[in-house]
Automatic annotation (TrEMBL):
Protein family according to the UniProt entry: Belongs to the peptidase M16 family.
Presence of the UniProt keyword Zinc in the record: yes
GO molecular function: metal ion binding; metallopeptidase activity
Annotated SUPFAM superfamilies: LuxS/MPP-like metallohydrolase
UniProt feature coiled coil, ranges: none
One Pfam family per UniProt: Peptidase_M16
PANTHER family for this protein: NARDILYSIN, NON-CATALYTIC MEMBER OF PEPTIDASE SUBFAMILY M16B-RELATED
GO BP terms in the entry: proteolysis
Keywords, comma-separated and alphabetical: Hydrolase, Metalloprotease, Protease, Signal, Zinc
Gene3D superfamilies, sorted: Metalloenzyme, LuxS/M16 peptidase-like
The protein's name: Insulinase family protein
Residues annotated as domain Peptidase M16 N-terminal: 36-174
Peptidase M16 C-terminal domain sequence ranges: 190-367
Organism: Antarcticibacterium flavum
Length: 440
């Protein structure tokens, strides 16, 4: 009787959770090609206004890398109606917060305001799109800002070059091969006209998705969106990157020396499919089995029991065109790097050759259920998810049913996908060493 009661209570909880997570939205397109998504949630007097542009590092000229990330900063500089240096003051003085971020695939800007400042958020984002001032003074100012960011986050950060080195070696054709932050030499060499042309090409309504989420009235918001964004001229069609990589058929070996570290690290990295493919979801689950938490296979074995690793982790970095599956480890004491490779390979082979246990599988399902619930726990989080699913996946309703993909994945499928992608002849082995040390 007690067990039946517990099962019934669990089923009720999941049913309530599933209902609570249903995100209703209205999606449509303006005449100028701008995709608009509205989500009404009147439980708290807050609103998020965000714009995602379908431009990232992969859309850059190979001789002008870093432009997309540069524009993340530059488009806060000044507009026709917002004076230089006033953007952040305008936001904070009206009780708001804002930020932006750039990936290889897109650039995302957002403001969080009390809901009575919805119109202010819409006006500011329309100003960014329609009236940006891109002059030499603004370019020079932001050039110094980006250089300082690169020094702090990459050049002088321990292990700061790992992802850049992985990408450089995994890709030979696709523009994922360069770092998102790009080259400072390329930015220094660029002319003002090149920056202006980049803006004209990519920061246009037909290459963007506007999301308004929170305490709004749908019909009133539609009118404001039309008033502020409708007059913005449509840009020329943007040609998407379409570059295919040849399969990796034998192990790639590389070494990098980092002056900011004292302990070496070992990285094994595999090129994986687009995040839109089902296999990418399975790889997310595999990484969870291997290194999600202290009871995960790699942590329990290499950190807890054998004490061979100071840190260990497996990560599936999913992107629009390809992904990178990365296993990263820092050895404990005198443990050879090759030992970490052998031990992690052994755990991957177990997944390839044996079904994970029912108990492990149940834990895995619970983990992804919790992630799904948490991902939609705030208005700002919902806004980001709606923009991402619409632009990069082409299916906005994934915000509600992506969890069904994870629920449908089987233990057999986990085994098959591990066999398909995580093999020694399909990977990069990167020895990440302290500068001037002897490679092992």
């Amino acid at each position: 009787m007690i067990n039946k009661f517990k099962l019934s209570a669990c089923a009720l909880f999941l049913a309530i959770t599933g209902f609570a997570q249903e995100v209703e939205f209205t999606e449509y397109e303006l005449d100028n090609g701008l995709t608009v998504i509205l989500h009404q949630d009147n439980t708290a007097p807050v609103v998020t206004t965000s714009v995602m542009y379908h431009v990232g590092a992969k859309d850059e000229d190979p001789e002008r890398t870093g432009f997309a990330h540069f524009f993340e900063h530059l488009l806060f500089e000044e507009t026709k109606n917002i004076e230089k240096g006033s953007w952040f003051k305008l936001v904070t003085s009206n009780g708001g917060s804002n930020n932006a971020n750039t990936s290889d695939d897109r650039t995302y800007y957002y403001e969080n305001f009390p809901s009575n400042n919805l119109e202010l958020g819409l006006w500011m984002e329309s100003e960014r799109m329609l009236h940006p001032i891109i002059d030499q003074k603004g370019v020079d100012t932001q050039n110094e800002v980006v250089k300082e960011e690169k020094r702090l986050r990459v050049d002088n950060a321990p292990y700061g070059q790992i992802l850049a080195e992985v990408k450089k070696n995994l890709y030979t054709k696709h523009p994922y091969r360069w770092a998102t932050i790009g080259s400072m030499d390329h930015l220094d060499a660029a002319t003002l006209e090149e920056f202006q042309a980049f803006n004209e090409k990519f920061y246009v309504p037909n290459n963007a998705t506007l999301v308004v989420a929170g305490d709004i009235n749908i019909e009133e918001t539609k009118k404001m969106v039309e008033d502020y964004f409708g007059p913005i001229p449509k840009g020329a069609p943007v040609e998407r990157v379409n570059v295919k990589e040849d399969p990796i058929t034998e192990q790639i070996n590389a070494t990098y020396e980092d002056p900011n570290i004292q302990l070496p690290a070992i990285v094994t990295a595999y090129r994986t499919p687009s995040m839109k493919e089902r296999d990418a979801y399975v790889l997310n689950m595999i990484s969870s089995v291997l290194s999600d938490g202290k009871s995960s296979r790699l942590y329990k074995k290499l950190v807890d029991e054998q004490k061979q690793a100071l840190q260990i982790g497996a990560f599936n970095i999913s992107q629009e065109d390809y992904g990178q599956y990365i296993v990263f480890g820092i050895p404990m004491g005198d443990t050879p790097l090759d030992t970490l490779i052998e031990e992690t390979d052994e755990e991957i082979k177990k997944i390839q050759n044996e079904l994970i246990s029912e108990r492990e599988f149940e834990k895995l399902q619970n983990t992804f259920e919790n992630r799904f619930v948490n991902s939609n726990s705030s208005v700002a989080g919902i806004a980001g998810s709606l923009a991402t699913y619409s632009m990069l996946y082409g299916d906005t309703n994934l915000i509600n049913n992506e969890i069904d993909i994870y629920r449908s994945i089987t233990r057999e499928e986990i085994q098959e996908v591990a066999k398909k992608y995580l093999n020694p002849n399909q990977r990069l082995v990167l020895r990440y060493m302290p500068k001037n040390s002897d490679s092992e």
